[in-house]
Design brief:
Elements: E1 2-8, H1 13-23, E2 30-37, H2 44-50, E3 54-57, H3 66-79, E4 84-87, H4 96-101, E5 106-110, H5 122-129, E6 133-140, E7 150-157, H6 164-186
Parallel strand pairs: 1-2, 1-4, 2-3, 4-5
Antiparallel strand pairs: 5-6, 6-7
Helix pairs in contact: 1-6
């Protein structure tokens, strides 16, 4: 059994997708030890409660430095014997301490065809660009913003009459299939 921690900052739909796949037996060798969030009011906390999962809420503002913040996270990860970190809408850059402790064992999903449209509002950027395709990317996490080695990408058409919400929803549907598939392939 491989123990993973899932980090999320928002609604947690990718988190829930992974948990559903585990419950349905599609990720039989994965155990999620806890949800880690940096937002005290994030909806992902509610989703974690449905699975009776521990939640670690750790706000950077409560620590004198990012290094101290990450030391606390590493304490939890170590005590839970976490082997992999899965970012699912976690909106903070992972710092040097966690990167060293989990070198090439942190993955992220991003709603664009990286290296295009890194960072926030990737879907809006793609929509405004005039591009006819976008997609989603799973990648290893490094010290940059969405710059790690690409593991897998899926594409999605951008229609001329798309709203941002429509495009986000199509990408989200893809992400909910792609992320568990990649987890199964590289972590199990």
């Amino acid at each position: 059994m491989t123990k993973i921690a899932i980090f999320a900052s928002g609604s947690g739909s990718n988190f829930e997708s992974i948990m559903t796949q585990i419950e349905e037996g599609n990720l039989p060798n994965i155990e999620v030890t806890a949800l880690y969030t940096d937002q005290v009011n994030a909806y992902c906390i509610e989703r974690a409660r449905k699975y009776n999962l521990d939640v670690h809420i750790n706000e950077l503002k409560n620590f004198p430095s990012k290094a101290d913040y990450e030391r606390k996270i590493i304490e939890w990860l170590t005590s839970e014997q976490v082997e992999w970190i899965v970012l699912a809408g976690y909106m903070k850059l992972i710092g040097e301490n966690i990167l060293k402790a989990y070198n090439r064992r942190i993955i992220n999903i991003h709603p664009s065809l990286l290296p295009k449209y890194k960072g926030k509002d990737a879907v809006g950027q793609a929509l405004e660009s005039g591009d006819t395709i976008t997609g989603t990317t799973v990648h290893y996490v490094d010290s940059g913003m969405d710059t790690g080695e690409i593991i897998e990408q899926w594409t999605c058409d951008i229609y001329t009459d798309d709203t941002k919400e429509q495009l986000e929803e199509r990408i989200k549907v893809m992400e909910h299939k792609l992320y568990p598939k990649v987890i199964s392939k590289i972590i199990q």
